[in-house]
Amino acid sequence: MGHVVAEVYYSGRWNLDHPTYNAFYLRLDDDSLHPLSFEELRSLYFNSPEKVSIISNTYRDKKESFTGADIFNNSNQTGAIGPDRPQHYPLSIHLKRTPVLEFKDIGLAYQGANYSGAAGINQNHRWTIDGLTPDENYVFVVHPGNLGGNLVTSDRSFDLIFSMTNGSLLTAEHISIDFSVPPVTPVEIPFQAHEKSVALSLSHPYQGPDYRYFYALRYEIKQLNKD
């Protein structure tokens, strides 16, 4: 589960503001009444959660889930995001147990898999691919859907960049996806595994302020034919 909050710098310090629930956080044993920063709140929730005071005059659905200790302690990843700080969502797929991920299956367990690119969040992926055999070859396949964003020119392409650890890419580290004529050709990323688990990062060069992103319809991992 993930969420977005804001930090504002004033009075010589960072102060966390939770606009969704009109909330900020204080430390009960601090008479200064300074709102806590993001890092201060995470540390306090982890070490002394009883000392956290949530100040909020708003009630909205799931308030406890999105303001309490669980989300601040367990969200992955955490930290500042923005045009110059792209977010890499941790995602996973397993050759034997979950070799295919459809768009309809994307929920909290696969948060961030719905699109790649610069939109509300500068969104990238870091896939953990498990169930592999070292020295065997595999292919990770992305099935793109629609291209979105501030598409004010005739350019209907999207640049996708690959990198890998615990394995070797058997393709170029960059591809330009052509969205001009549907259906869009699936993106195949072949690689050789060095371990039973590899990490594949999918990123892009777009940093805003213009939006450019694409929705993914399906992901899959397959073993390449040895013939």
What can you tell me about this protein's structure?
By secondary structure, the chain is mainly β. The protein has two domains: 6-74, no CATH class; 87-223, Jelly Rolls. Helices cover 9% and strands 44% of the residues. It has helices at 38-47, 63-67, 69-74, and strands at residues 6-10, 13-17, 23-27, 52-56, 87-94, 100-102, 115-118, 122-130, 137-149, 157-165, 167-169, 174-178, 187-193, 198-203, 212-223. The strands form three sheets. Strands 5, 6, 7, 8, 9, 10, 11, 12, 13, 14 and 15 form an eleven-stranded mixed beta sheet that branches. Strands 1-2 form a two-stranded antiparallel sheet. Strand 1 (6-10) and strand 2 (13-17) form a beta hairpin. The longest helix is centred in the first third of the chain and has 10 residues, at 38-47. The radius of gyration is 21 Å and the shape is globular. The model has no long low-confidence stretch (mean pLDDT 90).
- The quaternary organization reads as single chain
Q: By helix and strand content, what is the structural category?
A: mainly beta
Written as H for each helix and E for each strand, in order along the chain, the element string is EEEHEHHEEEEEEEEEEE
Mean pLDDT metric:
90
How much β-strand is present in the residues?
A: 35-45%
The CATH architecture name of the largest domain reads Sandwich
As for the CATH topology of the largest domain, it is Jelly Rolls
First-last Cα distance: 42 Å
Helix content: under 10%
**Unreliable spans:** none
The CATH class assignment of the largest domain is Mainly Beta
Query: What's the total number of strands?
Result: 15
